[in-house]
Design a protein that fits this description.
- The complex is a heterodimer.
- By secondary structure, chain A is an alpha+beta fold.
- Chain A folds into four domains: about 70 residues, no CATH class; about 130 residues, Gyrase A, domain 2 (2-Layer Sandwich); about 80 residues, Alpha-Beta Plaits; about 70 residues, no CATH class.
- Chain A is about 35% helix and about 15% strand.
- Chain A is built from 13 helices and eleven strands.
- Chain A has a five-stranded mixed β-sheet. In chain A, strands 1-2-3-4 form a four-stranded antiparallel β-sheet.
- In chain A, a hairpin with a 2-residue loop joins β5 and β6.
- In chain A, α4 packs across α8 and α10 crosses α11.
- Chain B is an alpha/beta fold.
- Chain B has two domains: about 150 residues, Rossmann fold (3-Layer(aba) Sandwich); about 130 residues, 3-Layer(aba) Sandwich (Rossmann fold).
- Helices cover about 30% and strands about 20% of the residues of chain B.
- Chain B is globular, with a radius of gyration of 19 Å.
- Classes of the chains: A alpha+beta, B alpha/beta.
- Chains A and B meet through α8 and α11 of A and α2, α4 and α5 of B.
- The structure holds iron/sulfur cluster.
- Chain B: It comes from Halobellus ruber.
């Protein structure tokens, strides 16, 4: 049985002196006839202070008191998004205290992107939180690397399994193998917010019906400097952009933004736990590239390919787009995107300049030109501060 | 409750770009001077657009980790943070003197003390000098040494050159180094000709950049002739035409940078004198050369 500490009762008395206490089925008031105490199953009134102190220590009432103390004194109401998330993590608005305490004893799980948060009951009604990768559900603690500082999550979420930088924090490529075994509420939220920045605030704003969604058009119109061109990206291409970047296989946020308030995009917005309220910087940077590419007119080229070669090119595009290259076995020449098979195609169909089927990209020049916009590398004419030219998307 | 928010550029391609920003935030967090210390980025998350909603405090000091006043500090950041009624004239700046403006963030209702960039603060001069100490491993470095501050150049942003000149002048005024010179990547006097500008055998070269990246790791070392190919690395010091060049890399990676961030917030009214002293103490160790 969870106990109640004197200071918790003292705090309760202090609060009641100011105004009635009311939370999760507990009601305590102080009026001329003395104290009144009410829970869903019990009520007392006309209590003296010693009687109230006695009453709150009954087995039935204790959980209500420690629950009140945890939410009102330990967590408080300052961090409204934090509080909302932690209450969500134990479905506090749906289940009565005794039921919740029972469930918390064995742990209540909440999935958040690729991680799962488990809330449990600590001493004196405090909650403890464990955070780990969903893939590690059920794995023994000893087999995972344990962390205690929320900021460690920064390192953990910077690189994917293959050591590549993850510019999009919500890409479904978070590495597993770690655990934050024992966090308090503040650190739990801090950890989640390090892994998925601003996700808790936006989730809660949405819950409160207050999420400020900025659609594509408005975002594009706001851009200046090298990004002001994205406004010219045709509506169809915005749909392709969302399909390329925002679907669940690429990003765990649920895309809430549309082309504009009156025109939804066809691309699937995903089913993630937390919303995306505006095109992110990665999408805007990609859009800049596509705006330039989409300005090109199509041309008719004539290629000689066997049917299998055409299909092979399609298979290569699919494999790259779905990031399946690493899954294709070295010797599996049945796969169109197999490396040897691709090299064979190149050896057979590319000329010395790298032109497919010997057909020049620019007919008049007769050479393969894929460096037409190297200017991008150097194209941030708006900022002397920007010191990283290798950042081609800037 | 008061919060500090450090804003930086960040990168989609290079994770090192935001490392100094995180490190300085950690240093300041440890002082406990602010109830919260957060970072926000143009190219990483949380975005400039959303960083304020991750802050619980009503009173927020926002310090841009940028070198000069200009497009980012005057247009992008105020716009993305939704600073209500922002007008650059609130800073009343000559390109070097932006200090603070107090505004309300439209979406969160927080009071934002929006500070000038770190690069133009006078405390930045100390960081440049500290960088020289760090790279030479000598806390008294100066006599017999030349000192070069390197900037991008005026081609794009006139203010960026102003910041370089300003700090070069201030280092000169310290009378500590035998010679001090401002050099640029894109214009005269060029960093390529660094040895032409110094009589001293030893020259410390410090780029006034926030993070190490393409310019500080590839361009500048190759331009100065420290190496033919940046991938093969270079020595510190490296000998070029009879001079020993102590190349320091981006000044923004120096631990003492955290102090400039605090100075900016303090100038804007944050009550953090004790924290400034702590940071100065904590970032003092001078590492051995080449570390
Ligand atoms: S814009 Fe798309 S890719 Fe970017 S965060 Fe939102 S849903 Fe994800």
């Amino acid at each position: 049985m969870t106990d109640v500490r004197d200071e918790q009762v003292d705090a309760l008395l202090d609060r009641v002196a100011e105004r009635p206490v009311e939370l999760d089925g507990l009601r305590v008031t102080d009026d001329d006839d003395g104290y009144a105490l009410e829970t869903p199953d019990e009520s007392h009134d006309g209590l003296s202070e010693p009687e109230l102190r006695e009453a709150v220590r009954s087995d039935h009432v204790v959980p209500y008191i420690t629950n009140w103390y945890f939410w009102e004194e330990a967590i408080g109401r300052r961090g409204r998004h934090r509080r909302a998330f932690l209450r969500h993590a134990e479905a506090a608005d749906e289940h009565p205290v005794p039921e919740r305490y029972d469930a918390l004893r064995s742990g209540l799980e909440t999935e958040w992107g690729e991680v799962v948060v488990t809330a449990t009951l600590g001493a004196d009604g405090h909650r403890r939180y464990e955070i780990r990768h969903v893939d590690d559900a059920g794995v023994d603690h000893d087999e995972l690397d344990a962390y205690h500082d929320p900021l460690s999550a920064r390192e953990l979420s910077t690189y994917d399994e293959r050591g590549r930088y993850r510019p999009l924090r919500t890409a479904p490529s978070l590495v597993s193998g770690w655990v934050f075994p024992d966090l308090d509420g503040r650190d739990a939220v801090e950890t989640l917010d390090t892994i998925y920045p601003a996700s808790i605030a936006n989730w809660n704003l949405e819950r409160e019906g207050d999420l400020d969604v900025t659609h594509w058009r408005e975002t594009a119109e706001r851009q200046t400097g090298i990004y002001d061109v994205v406004e010219e990206l045709p509506p169809d291409a915005v749909d392709w952009l969302a399909e390329a970047c925002c679907v669940d296989s690429q990003c765990l946020k649920r895309r809430e933004w549309q082309y504009d308030a009156d025109h939804d995009l066809e691309a699937d917005g995903g089913t993630g736990a937390f919303p995306c309220r505006e095109p992110c910087s990665l999408v805007v940077a990609a859009a800049r590239k596509w705006t330039k590419l989409e300005e090109e007119e199509t041309r008719t080229y004539e290629f000689e390919l066997t049917p299998s070669e055409k299909e092979q090119i399609e298979a290569i595009v699919d494999a790259v787009a779905d990031d399946r290259i690493d899954e294709i076995r070295e010797a599996d020449v049945y796969e169109g995107a197999n490396r040897y098979r691709t090299r064979f195609l190149r050896a057979k169909r590319f000329d010395e300049a790298g032109n497919l089927a010997g057909v020049a990209t620019e007919p008049e020049e007769g050479h393969h030109d894929d460096h037409g916009d190297d200017g991008d590398r150097d194209d941030h004419g708006d900022d002397g501060d920007h010191d990283d030219h290798s950042d081609r998307d800037d | 409750m008061q919060a500090l928010v450090i804003l930086a550029h960040g990168s989609h391609l290079n994770p090192d770009s935001s490392t100094p920003t995180h490190r300085h935030a950690d240093t300041i967090r440890e002082t406990g001077a602010f109830d919260e210390v957060k970072t926000g980025f143009w190219k990483e998350e949380p975005s400039l657009r959303e960083v304020l909603r991750t802050v619980e405090s009503d009173e927020v000091y926002v310090v841009p980790l940028f070198i000069s006043e200009g497009y980012f500090t005057e247009q992008v950041i105020p716009r993305e943070l939704r600073l209500s009624g922002w007008d650059v004239s609130e800073w009343d700046s000559d390109g070097l003197s932006a200090d603070t403006a107090t505004l309300v963030a439209e979406d969160t209702g927080q009071t934002v003390h929006y500070c000038g960039p770190v690069g133009t603060h006078e405390a930045m001069t100390d960081v440049l000098v500290r960088r020289a100490e760090t790279v030479t491993g000598d806390p008294d470095v100066g006599e017999g040494f030349g000192f070069a501050v390197v900037g991008h150049g005026t081609e794009r942003n006139e203010n960026s050159a102003k910041a370089i000149e300003y700090h070069a002048d201030r280092v000169r005024g310290m009378d500590r180094f035998d010679e001090v010179q401002a050099l640029y990547m894109d214009e005269e006097p060029e960093v390529d000709d660094v040895t032409d500008y110094f009589g001293s055998e030893d020259v410390v070269v410090v780029p006034l950049f926030v993070a190490d990246g393409f310019h500080t790791q590839e361009d500048i070392p190759e331009d100065m002739g420290l190496t033919d190919d940046y991938r093969t690395g270079y020595d510190v010091p490296a000998t070029v035409e009879g001079h020993r060049i102590w190349y320091a890399g981006a000044v923004g990676t120096e631990g003492l940078m955290a102090d400039v961030v605090l100075e900016r917030a303090s100038d804007a009214g944050a009550d953090i004198d004790a924290a400034i002293a702590t940071v100065r103490e904590a970032t003092r160790e001078t590492q051995a050369a080449g570390d």
